[in-house]
Amino acid sequence: MSDEMTEEGGVIKKFMFVNRTAPYGTVYALESLEVVLISAAFEQDACVLFADDGVYQLKKGQNTDALGMKNFSPTYRALEMYDVEKLYVDKESMEARGLTKDDFIVDVEVKTSAEIVSMMEDMDMVLNY
Amino acid sequence: MSDEMTEEGGVIKKFMFVNRTAPYGTVYALESLEVVLISAAFEQDACVLFADDGVYQLKKGQNTDALGMKNFSPTYRALEMYDVEKLYVDKESMEARGLTKDDFIVDVEVKTSAEIVSMMEDMDMVLNY
Amino acid sequence: MKFSIAIHEGPYTHEASDTAYQFIVAALEKGHEIFRVFFYHDGVNNGTRLTTPPQDDRNIVKRWSELAEKHSLDLVVCVAAAQRRGIADADESKRNGKDTDNIAPGFRISGLGQLIESCIQSDRHLTFGD
Amino acid sequence: MKFSIAIHEGPYTHEASDTAYQFIVAALEKGHEIFRVFFYHDGVNNGTRLTTPPQDDRNIVKRWSELAEKHSLDLVVCVAAAQRRGIADADESKRNGKDTDNIAPGFRISGLGQLIESCIQSDRHLTFGD
Amino acid sequence: MLHTVNKSPYTKNSLDTCLRLAKEGSAILLIEDGVYAALTGSEVTSKVEAAMKKFTFYALGADLDARGVQDRVIDGITVVDYAGFVNLATENSGVQSWL
Amino acid sequence: MLHTVNKSPYTKNSLDTCLRLAKEGSAILLIEDGVYAALTGSEVTSKVEAAMKKFTFYALGADLDARGVQDRVIDGITVVDYAGFVNLATENSGVQSWL
């Protein structure tokens, strides 16, 4: 690993957060988002991969009024402000679910399996949710 | 529903416990077994269906020494003493996993999908684990 | 009609507790009876009074306590499952040599027989779980 | 080598806590360092002192407390996840207006930053969950 | 009998087992992450459409709304609210909850 | 990189996604309910055998023993104990835990 340094001389590592669960059915999506936001405060080189049902986290038009839960999808839009700009969506998962880039609440990069394979191999730390 | 009566004049209902999870990976198999045992004390007409990964609950030769958990598989043998004698195994689940009747720690009736469909429809209460 | 409800998962982690709650509210509004709500597996974790959820989110435990109060619901936490997971009332705490308890108002701890009895006494049983 | 460990599921319900424990014991025996064990999601439920598991089964919480004592392990329970699920130490209890706490010996409650720091400071990070 | 399915058809096998073991003519209510099976244009759409010849499908509106997919429900699947869920539970002879 | 898979291949899609997104040559360690993928004579055996051309497979002995399936592990899958798990984690450049 060739770790970079933060301005204060701390280590910068490459983090990948792998989000594979649908929102609301379980809490993992929400609590993963909380981890991603915190990682930004540590000035780490973070990216988020949405794969399997995780791609549903970014679906536009979520409305939780009848469910009585908090709609946390707008927070994905706030990630950019925290310098978490690398949001990747697994192409195969997206297509299997009949989704396109236009369905997402934020701008994402759609990645093929082969692209994800090499990105993941390049990470220092992979965290799974 | 044509409920029968216990000796004390209580209602007897037809219960089916549907066990679909593997043992040890999660606690559902163990805690389902605890429910089945209790139901016997209520003199109910109980049967247990093992389907999907639930068929693994009955696998012979379980040894949890290295895992450090309690091996609860011998308890399935005790079910007969509690008059829980109707143990059904879903044929399709069993065969998909390469298992046969001889692999099981207790004597079971192997049932086809069609047989399970009509049995399940006949139940008063179905409990899922 | 009389309903028996089982909840298998804890608050927030899975939607099970939410769906069960909404189902029960709707059933009560229609004049149905909820014979008992039985909390099993991680469902017992719905019965702790120590949760402090975020201000902008629902308070699942409090919601159960209030619904129980309003409709005299019988909320039963399975004793065996509760012991594995650390949910205790004053009696359980004393019996097991603990220095405190954590059960929330409106919940009571009892045995698995209460689940079977609930099924026997009710017209329908629904399981909400993972 | 330095390890960072995250545990996402509670005791008994999933095997995650068991596997993590066995992994850590084996790593320590080999002379590796466990920088931190971070309990997230339902993993926070490993940190309650109110469990009373069956006599013939393992005592997961006690096992963690003892391992922490023996090896000076840093067992951190995520504060946000703990608030949702009802795990509190004396400070948290006071701050949130609760009448008691339930944290087990050897565990401490802290923020999510501790997870990121643990990853930064360690050579490997492993997640045990569902 | 009413069958409920609360798991995504992409992640877990619950819907498959339900379709195999539910009696023809049964009602199947998709709830929680199970509602993802109710959508058009996906990899599982054809499987569900085929099953609609054998079963009557329902999906819980609150769960569709929350997930932002209420506008792409397969024609012929009835969207119900929690009161509708209660009705389905009473109108059918029993409930089997596929987890 | 070491990939761990802890879900049954019959129940959840974790193994499939791992096989699709792990780099050729990676080590895959089956743990917990994931060990059911390591067995001969099942519906998933051929899939795993095909994947063995691309990956090196391991299975956790304690989990095989507990489930009573230690005697039917596919030839070429290495059974390891927890110490072996630790070694795999150190020898590989990182760990990806497929849940």
Q: Features of this protein?
A:
heterohexamer; C: 130 residues; alpha/beta; five-stranded parallel β-sheet; 20% strand; globular; E: 99 residues; 4 helices; 5 strands
Explain how this protein is built:
The complex is a heterohexamer, with two copies of chain A (129 residues), two copies of chain C (130 residues) and two copies of chain E (99 residues). Helix content of chain A is 26%, strand content 22%. Chain A is α/β, with parallel strands linked by helices. In chain A, strands 6-5-4-3-7 form a five-stranded parallel beta sheet. Chain A has a two-stranded antiparallel ribbon with strand order 1-2. A five-stranded parallel beta sheet of chain C has the order 4-3-2-1-5, sandwiched between helices. In chain C, strand 1, helix 1 and strand 2 form a beta-alpha-beta unit. The longest helix of chain C has 14 residues. Chain E is globular, with a radius of gyration of 12 Å. Chains C and D meet through helix 3 of C and helix 3 of D.
Topology:
The complex is a heterohexamer, with 2 copies of chain A (129 residues), 2 copies of chain C (130 residues) and 2 copies of chain E (99 residues).
Chain A: E1 4-5, E2 11-12, E3 14-19, H1 28-41, E4 45-50, H2 74-78, E5 86-90, H3 91-96, E6 109-111, H4 113-121, E7 125-128
Parallel strand pairs in A: 3-4, 3-7, 4-5, 5-6
Antiparallel strand pairs in A: 1-2
Chain C: E1 2-7, H1 16-29, E2 33-39, H2 60-71, E3 75-78, H3 79-85, H4 90-95, E4 107-110, H5 113-121, E5 124-128
Parallel strand pairs in C: 1-2, 1-5, 2-3, 3-4
Chain E: E1 2-5, H1 14-21, E2 27-30, H2 45-51, E3 56-60, H3 61-66, E4 78-80, H4 82-91, E5 95-98
Parallel strand pairs in E: 1-2, 1-5, 2-3, 3-4
